[in-house]
Amino acid sequence: MGLKANVVNVPFDAIIPGLSAGKYDLGASSFTDTKAREKVVNFVDYFSAGESFYTKASGGTTISTIADLCGKTVAVENTTTEQTDAQTQSKKCKTAGKPAVTVISFPNQNAANLALSSGRAQLGFADSPVAAYQVKKTGGQFKLVGSAFATAPYGLAVPKKSGLDKAVLAGLQALIKDGTYTKILTKWGVQAGAITAPKLNGAIS
After folding, report:
1. Quick one: DSSP state of residue 25?
2. What is the mean pLDDT of the chain?
3. Per-residue H/E/C for 3-34
4. What is the pLDDT of residues 88-137, one digit of tens each?
């Protein structure tokens, strides 16, 4: 787009409010494009991701699906899809007469990881590319457990009525066409989530 980005790192739960307040022009932080979030911002969908669990490689716990969370302690980042899903599953556990899920929420991913490595939590719960990256960067301290599920689109968040969404979409289409998009995903080992037709506000739930 011929623009230079001024990257500002803030807590995940501060990004969308910051966009709405006019503090930022674009939000990029593994945002799942949801219908609830689309009421506040527009999304340019660029990736397809699921959700995954990870645990300590030594002495960790086992889990196959989210239904196995009952009675376990899970670390999540504030206001993420995983926080909502873990809390929803906890209610299902109690309704079924099983122990509730203990959901511990943190302002950033590093704090959630510390809870897991220190033994305060049994599981970490994040979007699948995020979980895979956490496992990779710990060099064997964590491992993925169970299978990824609940595939949904990732989007770049743009303030409503800014008009930037169409420009970002055109830029993304150009990156896909010239192969840059595939090179970026391959560099980070997440090419499995590649899409061929980006769109505006493509939330499925």
Report:
1. S
2. 94
3. CCCCCCCCCHHHHHHHHHCCCCCCEEEEEECC
4. 999 999 999 999 999 999 999 999 999 999 999 999 999 998 898 899 88
Q: Examine the pLDDT at 6 and tell me if it is beyond 80.
A: yes
What is the Cα–Cα distance from 19 to 109, expressed in whole angstroms?
21
State the Cα torsion 77-98-132-11 to the nearest 10°.
0
List, for residues 76-102, the tens digit of each pLDDT value: 999 999 999 999 999 999 999 999 999
Contacts of 132 (CB under 8 A, 6+ apart): 52, 144, 189, 190
Contacts of 58 by beta carbon, 8 Å cutoff, 6+ apart:
none
Enter the tokens of residue 182.
């595939």
Q: Cβ–Cβ contacts within 10 Å for residue 179, how many?
A: 9
Going by C-alpha positions, the residue among 34, 16, 7 that lies closest to residue 159 is 16
Tell me how far apart the 2 most distant CA atoms of the chain are, in Å: 57
| Other C-beta atoms lying within 10 Å of the C-beta of residue 129 | 22
Q: Look at the pTM and tell me if it is higher than 0.85.
A: no
> CA 105, 126, 118 angle in degrees (round to 5)?
55
